[in-house]
Amino acid sequence: MAESRRLGKADLTLPCKEMAHYLLGKILARKLDNGAVLKGRIVETECYLGGEDKASHSYNGRQTPGNEPMYMPSGTTYVYFTYGMYFCFNISSIEPGAVVLIRAAEPLQGLETMAKFRSVKKKGVLKETELCNGPSKLCIAMNMTKQNCNKMDLCESEVLWIEDDGGKVEEKEIVISTRIGIASAGEEWAGKPLRFYVLSNPHVSKRDKKAERELS
């Protein structure tokens, strides 16, 4: 990999939609307790805007001890537990209650370790494209839980950060689609174009072929 720099406050102080675009192509790095560092290139993101966004945990200004990181400074991690068994990893933006969900990543470093973490939940041999191709898979592969990765400042943390190695994703490569698994939020918000992914990347969780055709 090319030499990379760690992102700082100036990089991550962004509105939610802008951050969701900006993070594509950046590298999520996770340092484990044994000193090993896992890395994956972010290839899919989703926006949860708070306020009127009925799919957001902060809909209508809702504030609880659980969603506190959504109101913390931009670049703060928000990890939540879902379906009674999985974690999802988010990053706060500058708007109160708005976060970017990291949906998928392309594994770059520590693939054997990622595979071991994933094999605890899934039997059989996993393909490289199956390691981090979904929000809960990503959290399992990189050992990110609410207990060890929540409320962290990505610009200061020693165990979790984001890097830029120059792997820029051009706008023409970004597919804009609807979010996944939020039908309960109602047709209007379920249909909002708030999911973004890298065209033709095999590590994306779910492709939207109609949106891809419109992009071309």
Provide an overview of this structure.
With 216 residues, the chain is α+β, with helices and mostly antiparallel strands. It has a single domain (5-169), classed as Roll (3-methyladenine DNA Glycosylase, Chain A), CATH 3.10.300. Helices cover 19% and strands 26% of the residues. Strands 1, 2, 3, 4, 5, 6, 7, 8 and 9 form a nine-stranded antiparallel beta sheet that branches. Strand 2 and strand 3 form a beta hairpin. The two termini are 29 Å apart. The model has no long low-confidence stretch (mean pLDDT 95).
Looking at this protein, list some descriptive labels.
216 residues, alpha+beta, 3-methyladenine DNA Glycosylase, Chain A, nine-stranded antiparallel sheet, 26% strand
SSE layout and pairings?
Elements: E1 5-6, H1 9-12, H2 16-22, E2 27-31, E3 37-48, E4 77-82, E5 86-92, E6 99-109, H3 111-119, H4 135-141, H5 146-149, E7 160-164, E8 174-177, H6 187-190, E9 195-198, H7 209-215
Antiparallel strand pairs: 1-7, 2-3, 2-7, 3-6, 3-9, 4-5, 5-6, 8-9
Family: Belongs to the DNA glycosylase MPG family.
Pfam family, one: Pur_DNA_glyco
Enzyme class: hydrolase
Low-confidence stretches: none
Cα shape: globular
Q: Biggest sheet, open or closed, and with what strands and sense?
A: 9 strands, antiparallel
Kindly estimate the percentage of residues that lie in beta strands according to DSSP.
25-35%
Q: Which fold name is given in CATH as the topology?
A: 3-methyladenine DNA Glycosylase, Chain A
- Name the helicity range: 10-25%
